[in-house]
Amino acid sequence: MQGFSEFIDGLTIGFTPVIGGDYRQKDYAYIDLSANNPDLLKLEVASSEAFSIFIDEYLRNRKAKAAYGGYNELRTLYNRSELFNNVAANRNIHIGLDVWVPAFSDIISPLDGEIHSFKDNDNFGDYGPTIILQHSSNGRKFYTLYGHLSRKSLETLRIGDKVRAGEKIAELGDFDENGDYAPHLHFQIMEEMHDYTGDYPGVVKKEDLDLFLKNCPDPNLLLKI
Asked: Helix or strand or coil: residue 123?
């Protein structure tokens, strides 16, 4: 059987939007938020407001409208949250793709699918409101996750509702409802859900990384930003 990463790569031919509105491929700039980025040392990462300013300045300097990145990225910014930084496990490797755009931006489905589950993961530093879609192509099921949404986005959802590629499914939340982050979308692809509903780990510890990378390939294989 074709590997899952190759399968995902083959689903789209070119740039495939997940953010609605007038965003073209050339409007995106890659951003490094890893522990290797010296600019982050100057930043108070515990402050969502300070991080928003950092993102805005980054985009202005590059004449871009959106920033993206973060797959398989070791980050220190999760140290502020006990959800990730605790005695049991130090989870600090990000396995989704972040897209940094303004709060309340439209989120669209890149593929046909249906609502698998949704939940307000309201812990500090968590996803906040989250939607998971189920997709099927050539008889093969898989899932996409959309985190850091607005609470309004969950109000009228029903499990099993159909969505079409390019259809608005949600909007981004602001820091007061998205887990206390600068506004951004966490987008992730999963081959298996492992009994999760409305949630799936997007930050993992080093010891579990190989398992999660196998189940969660680089989302840019699909989006092709």
From this structure: coil
What are the tens digits of pLDDT across the range 108-124?
999 999 999 999 999 88
| Half-sphere exposure at residue 93, Cβ-oriented, CA atoms within 13 angstroms | 14
123 contacts: CB under 8 Å, gap ≥ 6: 81, 83, 179
Is the CA virtual torsion 41, 45, 50, 56 positive or negative? positive
Strands 203-204 and 93-94: antiparallel
Candidates 81, 144, 139; CA nearest to 108 is: 144
- Which of these, 222, 67, 68, lies nearest to 133 by C-alpha position? 222
The predicted-structure confidence for 70-84, as pLDDT tens digits, reads as follows 999 988 764 444 444
CATH of domain 4-219: 2.70.70.10
The pTM score is: 0.92
Q: CA–CA distance from 14 to each of 22, 82, 183, 220 (Å)?
A: 17, 39, 26, 11
Domain range list for the chain: 4-219
Cβ 185 vs Cβ 146: under 8 Å: yes
